[in-house]
Amino acid sequence: MSCRMGRECRTGKTAPGCDVIYVSSTCSCKRRISEAVAELAEGGFRNIELSGGTVYYKGFEEDLLRLRDRYALHYLAHNYFPPPESDFVVNLASADSLVRQRSLEHLAGAIDFCRRLEIGRFGFHAGFFVDPDVTMLGRTMTCDAIGDRDACRARFCEGVRELRSHAGRDVVLYVENNVCSRDNHDRFAGHPPFMGLRFRELREIADATGCRILFDVAHLYVTSVSMGLDFAEEMRMFMRSDYLHVSDNDGLRDLNRELDKDGKIFSQLRRYPLRGRTITLEISSSPAGLRRSLELLAALD
């Protein structure tokens, strides 16, 4: 695989034979998106996926347009971006009508943002069978009331279909596999409160809604280890996706480490064709660490 930085057009469509590697804005610790993007751009990165972890402020969109033009950047957008004015957990599967409506409005607003910035794809996480507090994300869940799983899936799929109608042909929607850590697997006695953990379930969601799959390989590795699944078998998800999130971890938690060329995740990536797929590195590392991971991916055929 050759790394062609900056070849993806602003509509998000990839030129034939073009492989594009993005870095997530979460690779920066800056709290304002303009500062995060500027830091990455100054580090030489031109393809940037805008994601969660930053705060809302007036004028952020104008800042992004200015930075895009200044550095010739290409953007994607993901899940919790643009940031809401007050934090909440996006959950289209929620039985709480207010949470679900707010989630729909947030995601519809994100689609509108993508349309304005000529971003051709938008990915967001599958839903939850619980309504966690925002402080629980990435941690062991402490809530107990798990909703009816079939009803949650039905609400989620209905919401995705509504969003696809809203997006039209301007923005292609992707649903991302969630992650289940060992702690959360044990906390819920092997019945985790996350939707879309396994290939089979995510495929059913995609087939029922017409959305595409955003495949987070690191999420799948943690889930496979935690739930005692065959990671290589679950990697079948790869062939249903043209959009990947990549980082490394210890199999117990989603740590967003740089890629280890001798690790389980990279050994699986070696087995699959990366050409023609868009990849985002979600790595908490220095610019040098980001480049090492980028170079590992770029060297794959």
What are the key terms here?
301 residues; alpha/beta; TIM Barrel; 8-stranded parallel barrel; disordered N terminus
Question: What this model shows, in words?
Answer:
α3 (97-116) packs parallel to α4 (149-167). Strands 1-2-3-4-5-6-7-8 form an 8-stranded parallel beta barrel, surrounded by 6 helices. β3, α3 (97-116) and β4 form a beta-alpha-beta unit. It is α/β, with parallel strands linked by helices and 301 residues long. It has one domain (20-298): Divalent-metal-dependent TIM barrel enzymes (TIM Barrel, Alpha-Beta Barrel), CATH 3.20.20. It has helices spanning 33-42, 60-71, 97-116, 149-167, 182-187, 199-209, 217-227, 231-234, 264-269, 287-298; strands at residues 20-24, 47-50, 74-78, 121-125, 172-176, 212-216, 243-246, 278-281.
In short:
By secondary structure, this protein is of the alpha/beta class. The protein has ten helices and eight strands.
SSE arrangement:
Blueprint: E1 20-24, H1 33-42, E2 47-50, H2 60-71, E3 74-78, H3 97-116, E4 121-125, H4 149-167, E5 172-176, H5 182-187, H6 199-209, E6 212-216, H7 217-227, H8 231-234, E7 243-246, H9 264-269, E8 278-281, H10 287-298
Parallel strand pairs: 1-2, 1-8, 2-3, 3-4, 4-5, 5-6, 6-7, 7-8
